[in-house]
Amino acid sequence: MSFIAQVTISIVIYFLVRFFYKNEKSLNIAVAIGCLSYILIYLLTYEFISILPTIHFMVTGLSLLFIFVAYNEIIFLERKVKKIKEGELLSLESFSVEKYYKVVFKLLGIGLFFLSLALLSGLSLQTVFSSNLILKAIFTFLAWIIYLVVVVGIKYFNFPIKYATRSLFISMWAVLGAYYMNTYLVDS
Questions:
Q1: Band of the pLDDT at 35, cuts 50, 70, 90?
Q2: The total number of structural domains that make up the chain
Q3: Domain span holding position 177
């Protein structure tokens, strides 16, 4: 089973748990089950496991999982905000938009953390630092700068969490796209 198939299966498991388990803690439970399923699928797929490649593929898969989870939660949040703007308040329980944006912001921060661990484990696997790895390091560093600027903007300059989450989400997709395009361009 390929790496992408493993990540996709864990994302589908996350979606299924999130869809069928309607509870206040469903996001936490769905993320935990999705992460656990990815780790178990990875460990069951490969018989021979060496430490560094295992760590590298696990944190890379978990970073993808968290980015897709954040994407799903942003879509969910935007639908709820649209319902609120249209005046459909009856179906909404105690829904706090600002609190939910903070949750998505934290999910993106965890995804960035795993992406950074993927970079560090990838660097430890290589003996020669190629242009591919240098560009990945630069993109990850830029993502951390964006994340830290957004955190400082929220804490000290009253930057709205809504725009902070959206801009960080776009920058995370840009970093992820740069990772894959960089690999494609360097390998070609």
A1: very high
A2: 1
A3: 3-185
